[in-house]
Specification:
Residues 86-96, 128-142 have a biased composition (Polar residues). The protein is of the alpha+beta class and 336 residues long. Among the domains are: 146-253, Alpha-Beta Plaits; 262-316, no CATH class. It has helices spanning 168-178, 211-228, 282-293, 330-333, and strands at residues 149-155, 159-163, 186-192, 195-200, 231-237, 247-252, 263-266, 272-276, 298-305, 308-313.
Amino acid sequence: MQYNNGQYYQQPGYQPYQVPYQGGQPYYQQQQPYAAQQPNMAQYGASPAVPFPTTFASPPAQPTPIQPSRPARTHTPHPHRRHTNAGATSNGQQRPLRSAMKKVERAHTTAVPLARTRTHSGGENRSRLNSIARTRTSSSSGHAKPPDHLFVTIEPPNELILYNIAYPYTIDEIKERLFPMWQPGISHQETWGSNWRVKFAGSPWNLKGSDSIMVHRMMIQLFWVLVNQGYVYLTTIQAGRALKSPRLVFIRSLPDPGAHFFAMSFNSAGDRLTFVNAPDGLALNLGLYLRSTFPRRIEHDEQVLDGVFHLSLKKSDESAGRRQKSFPRPCPEALQ
C-alpha cells in the first residue's frame, strides 16, 4: 500500500478468528481472509520472502443446536381499582361467577304514576321575561277584537243599512237621534249578526219637496253620531253590481263630539247649489267669490231658511246668448 510519502508498506494478512460456541459440540466459524495485496518491491531491492498464509478449507457443516426457548412472560398489570378482585370475599376466596342468563330477582316496588298538576297557562298568571309588553287578547269568539271598519249603505227609496257594527249602543244612539227627525216614522227594522237595517216610511231618499231639507239634516246627524262613537269617514266604494248603491267606509278613530258637519247638494237641473247647516260666513263668502269671478252668471245667493243657503245661476247667459246649464268649474274648487 502506498502512502503520501511515496513509500510502500506491506499490509499484514488477517488471521481467522475463532468464535467459541456455547452449546454441545464446539463450532468453529472461519472468516475468509482478504486477498493479500502484492506491492511492487522491485524498487526496494531483494528482500527475504514473507510467507503468506494459505486459504484454509472450511470444516464440514455441523447441525446447529437449537437453544430451548424461554416461556413468554405474563404481563402483570399495575395495581388499579379496576384491576382489583372485586369478587373476592373477606377471607381471600374467589366468589363464584353469576350466570348472565339468570334473572336477578328484585324487590317489588309500586310504580310512581307519571302525572303532574296542571299549571296556569293564562297570559295574566304567567310571568314573561324579556318580552314586549302587549295586551293579551282572548281567542274566544265572545271576546273577539272589535272590527275597525263600519260600512253604511243608503238604499233607495227608504233603506239605511249598517254593516260590521262593533257596539250595540251605536245603533241605540242612531235610533235616538234620527228616528224623531222623520215625521212619517219607521216601517221596519231588523238586526242580524253585527248588521242593522231600517226602513223609513215613505221615500226619504228621493229628495223631493220640502222633505229634502230634512233628509239633509238626517245625514248630518248620522255622520255626527258616528264620529261621536269613534268613526270617521274614509272613502266610498262600489261593490257588486253597477246599479247597486255604493258603500260609505268609516274607520275607527278617537271620538270627536265637537265635530261640525254640513251638507251641500245640487238640484237635478244643476243650476242651484244648496248648503244646509253651513258654518257662518262660508256660503256668503262663496257667493261673493263667484260674483267677482263670474259677474254675469250668478243670479242670486241668499239664505232662504234657518241654516239653509241657496246659490242660483241665471237661466241664460246674456253675453253669449245661450242657456247656462250648470255651475262653472271653479265653484267646487272655491270650497277647498
